[in-house]
Design a protein that fits this description.
By secondary structure, the chain is α/β, with parallel strands linked by helices. It has one domain (2-194): Alpha-Beta Complex (DHBP synthase), CATH 3.90.870. It is built from five helices and ten strands, in the order βαββαβαββαβαβββ. It has a ten-stranded mixed beta sheet with strand order 1-8-2-3-7-4-6-5-9-10, with helices on both faces. Helix 1 (12-23) crosses helix 4 (124-133).
Length: 202
């Protein structure tokens, strides 16, 4: 299903429809402040496994990322020092993924690598989904290196490609092409390991 949601003012009725799908273990494609992404309720292991399968990712060997509404309950999902928290506070919401050690609240599937990526995108649609859902989304970008550009930016073409694999594709307008900047914060000596969209404020 292709569902139009306006990023400036996401309609509560549409948001609730998507949240219901997420609560039922469904998969959703949504816009972020970088590229379109595929996600699910981060605490639903079966849904997380489905996304890993679609993306050809081995969760034992890859870092998984989650989207939080803000930093208020971040310590439930990751271990974060004061230094790292200050850095995140300066830069979020924004196009950054911070890699942190996982905490105990996350299901076992996240603990194979003992690290988790934390995102708080500057996008009202996805943040409102997380807010209403009440816990994070597990997220992966749908953009592949060899993809035809339009297929990862135009919601109608994304729908064409993924309609039989996910439950809802949100049309929140054209998506971006540049992925997030990834910052390794597993120690206090934080380091950019992939420069993407956005300039990190130290």
């Amino acid at each position: 299903m292709l569902l139009k949601i306006y990023p400036e003012n996401p309609h509560p009725k549409e948001i609730h429809k998507v949240v219901q799908t997420l609560q039922d273990g469904g998969l959703v494609i949504y816009p972020t402040d970088t590229v379109y992404a595929i996600g699910c309720n981060a605490l639903n292991v079966r849904a997380v496994e489905k996304i890993c399968q679609i993306k050809g990712v081995n969760p034992q060997k890859s870092n998984l990322s989650i989207i939080c509404y803000d930093l208020s309950n971040i310590s439930a999902y990751a271990k974060v020092s004061n230094t790292v928290f200050k850095l995140m506070k300066k830069n979020l919401p924004g196009p950054f993924t911070f890699i942190l050690p996982t905490s105990n609240e996350l299901p076992k599937i996240y603990k194979n690598k003992k690290e988790v990526g934390i995102r708080v995108p500057d996008n009202a649609i996805v943040r409102e989904l997380v807010n209403v859902l009440g816990n994070p989304l597990m997220t992966m970008s749908i953009h592949d290196e060899d993809d035809i550009v339009e297929y990862s930016t135009d919601p109608e073409l994304i729908h064409e490609k993924y309609a039989d694999r996910v439950d809802i594709i949100i049309d929140g307008g054209y998506g971006g092409l540049e992925a997030s900047t990834v910052v390794d914060c597993t120690t206090d000596a934080c380091e950019i390991i992939r420069q993407g969209k956005g300039e990190l404020i130290w």
